[in-house]
User: Which sequence fits this backbone?
């Protein structure tokens, strides 16, 4: 008798990310029998600052929904950071097999942690203007990548790309377009977060998990960039185990 086919997986990358940066997860998921599709959000591959300057959250969501619909069947959605917020919206508007939120930003205001404030000041003009920007190497190293090995940070930073200042402004204001009704999300949800995350506070991650009555896996030393290749052996196996139970 043939084994029941596993649902396909849609991978949604983060701010300043690209589909290629989700490849460590895609590779391991394929090794466990999952077909993976990585969405490309607006203004990248290649980088297009004109697109980024005019893109807001709804433009990113339209791209994510189109990628989901192109799969043609109920899929697992795995989203990192901004990709997690997009995943929440997909789960509210479609009926995915499961939703995995990796260091997800919330469906509302993203409050800045005090330790990250000094790194926010230089990028405020771009956020206020809604202009495409890319944080400095110093900011990338000390905020989203803060606890990764130095060599891995040096390899990752050149691969990070500009992103939409308009979306950061929307998150800072907690605009209605970001919000998701918890009751509209009916699929199983897993939240995964890093205890050393300087972008999304631990209390925000806990609140998201409670919101969806989700299991919450916490990796105390992991930063916001929880999808880093060096963390895959630590972070991915419990997710694979959860998926087997949630969609088996």
Assistant:
């Amino acid at each position: 008798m043939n084994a029941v086919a596993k649902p396909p997986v849609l991978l949604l990358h983060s701010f300043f990310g690209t589909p290629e940066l989700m490849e460590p997860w895609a590779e391991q998921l394929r090794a466990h029998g999952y077909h993976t599709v990585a969405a490309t959000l607006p203004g990248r591959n290649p980088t297009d600052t004109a697109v980024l300057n005019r893109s807001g959250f709804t433009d990113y969501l339209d791209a994510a929904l189109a990628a989901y619909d192109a799969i043609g069947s109920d899929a697992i959605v795995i989203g990192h950071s901004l990709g997690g917020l997009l995943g929440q919206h997909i789960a509210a508007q479609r009926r995915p097999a499961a939703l995995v939120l990796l260091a997800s930003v919330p469906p509302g205001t993203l409050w800045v942690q005090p330790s990250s404030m000094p790194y926010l000041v230089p990028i405020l003009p771009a956020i206020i203007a809604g202009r495409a920007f890319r944080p400095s190497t110093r900011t990338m190293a000390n905020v989203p990548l803060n606890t990764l090995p130095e060599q891995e940070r040096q390899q990752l930073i050149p691969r990070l790309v500009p992103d939409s200042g308009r979306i950061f402004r929307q998150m800072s204001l907690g605009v209605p377009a970001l919000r998701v009704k918890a009751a509209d999300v009916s699929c199983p949800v897993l939240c995964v977060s890093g205890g050393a995350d300087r972008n999304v506070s631990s209390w925000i991650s806990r609140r998201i998990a409670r919101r969806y009555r989700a299991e919450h896996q916490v990796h105390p030393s992991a930063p916001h960039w929880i999808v880093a290749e060096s963390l895959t052996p630590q972070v991915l196996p419990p997710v694979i185990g959860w998926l087997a139970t949630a969609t088996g």
